[in-house]
Amino acid sequence: MKKLVLTNVVKYVEDNIGNFHQKRLENLKKLKLITILKRKNPYLFKAKNILTAQDLVKGFLDAHLGSQEEGIFGEFLEGLSIFICNKVFNGKKSAAEGIDLEFERGKIKYIVTIKSGPNWGNSGQIKKMQDYFKKAKKILKTNTKSVNIVAVNGCCYGKDNNPDKGDYVKLCGQRFWEFISGNDNLYLDIIEPLGHKAKEKNEEFLESYARLINKFTVEFSNDYCSNYKIDWKKLVKINSSK
What is the rounded CA–CA span in Å between residue 91 and residue 1? Predict the structure, then answer.
């Protein structure tokens, strides 16, 4: 185990956080109105009594962007986790299907799937993760029969005070960052550098976002409004009809 040098972590964040901002901006610029209308729940917005085209467009767009950005930022956090673990425990990106990180700490080999937060999947998705763990363990034990392998579901934020899940361990928030770094305070240390150039990048994003809201509002008014009212049946048809 090597001591983690925080300046290296800060430099990695500052060098790579721009990719997150760039991807979210690129995805925004490529987005089409029909895409968000088909992917989000029109019944929910009707139940909320949304009356204006702009409010509906903004609601659909914000819901779409929220889920999309979670995925983009999750990729960044995965890369950061692997970078940190490599510096301390010589961790590496795993070649095993469904496994993000593998490394040895003490006399144990850990195989890790990295998720953003603790509530990331339904029972089917969790079962799939467990199947990935079983498959990876089988392969690793074939190659090195004496190795002690522990499977870990690492979550970059949140809490789970019952980490032992039987055939794997779930480590969230502070527990996860300490696990891959040996640094109990790392979960606090990384928050500040994440804001690197955030104001500058967000201003560019918000300008494109505002233009898109205006563009989509005009398109929606032309195609999905009748007598200046939202045509909910037409919207539901484009979203859900056979």
Answer: 11
Q: Which residues of 88-115 are buried (b: 16+ CB within 10 A; e: fewer)?
A: bbebeebeeeebbbbbebeeebbbbbbb
CA distance 74 to 148: 29
Going by DSSP bridges, is the β-strand pair 108-115/148-155 parallel, antiparallel, or unpaired?
parallel
Q: Which CATH superfamily is domain 90-182 in?
A: type ii restriction endonuclease, domain 2 (3.40.1560.10)
* Four-residue CA torsion sign, 33, 34, 35, 40: positive
Q: What is the 3-state secondary structure (H, E, C) of 101-135?
A: EEEEECCEEEEEEEECCCCCCCHHHHHHHHHHHHH
- 141-183 residue pLDDT tens: 876 666 799 999 999 999 999 999 999 999 999 999 999 999 9
